[in-house]
Write a structure and sequence with these properties.
single chain; about 200 residues; mainly alpha; Methane Monooxygenase Hydroxylase, Chain G, domain 1; about 85% helix; elongated
Length: about 200
């Protein structure tokens, strides 16, 4: 049982590292105007495969050992967490695709995206560290950080409705990327919620 749990933890850690790299690379590439759709897709597919491996390992552990209490909560949570990390990869690919579709965005104001990216990067790191250390107090900070992400997203959307001068291409590209970052932040929160559940046995 312990060996199986270690394998499960290692698989999740591998996903965490790849997911974090994927998102950071996509954000950096978007800011620089670099097209990385293929590598982003490769990472997304790799994360999907790793998620399938986690699913199979979790089912094997449940069937073979019929775990209870903390072990059972941990295995169930790993399924949710692996899904979250796989979504990171998908959203990283979506961000890369925005540049592919929109073309040159060098004249667009990317300050809102840069601001939001910093918060999202922090949340990704926090979600990973809270999982690795099973630190429920660290995991609880994610909901607070998410408030700033939501505020930035909604403020930008509101500025467009109020008639901020911006081209349709820039507005659409920025809204898409901000939306993907907002969804990544949500999944970071879900990972934190899973950590809290593992430790306390209580759902958020």
């Amino acid at each position: 049982m312990d060996l199986g749990l270690d394998r499960l933890s290692n698989a999740i850690s591998d996903m965490a590292n790849l997911a974090q790299q994927s998102v950071m690379k996509a954000i950096e590439a978007y800011a620089k105007g670099e097209r990385i759709s293929q590598s982003a897709l490769d990472n997304a597919q790799r994360l999907s495969l790793l998620a399938s491996e986690v699913d199979e390992l979790a089912v094997e552990l449940l069937a073979r050992y019929q775990p209870v209490a903390t072990d059972l909560r941990y295995i169930k949570s790993c399924l949710e967490i692996s899904y979250g990390f796989s979504r990171f990869g998908r959203y990283a690919y979506d961000i890369a695709q925005v540049l592919e579709m929109a073309g040159d965005l060098s004249d667009c104001d990317k300050s809102a995206i840069e601001h939001l990216s910093k918060h999202v990067a922090k949340m990704i790191e926090t979600s990973i560290q809270s999982f690795k250390t099973r630190d429920q107090h660290l995991a609880r900070t994610l909901r607070q950080d998410d408030e700033e992400v939501d505020r930035t997203y909604h403020n930008y959307a509101q500025s467009l409705y109020q008639g901020t001068e911006v081209t349709v291409k820039c507005a659409l590209a920025s809204m898409l990327v901000l939306r993907y970052l907002e969804r990544i932040a949500d999944h970071a929160c879900y990972i934190g919620d899973s950590v809290i559940y593992v430790v306390t046995g209580k759902k958020i």
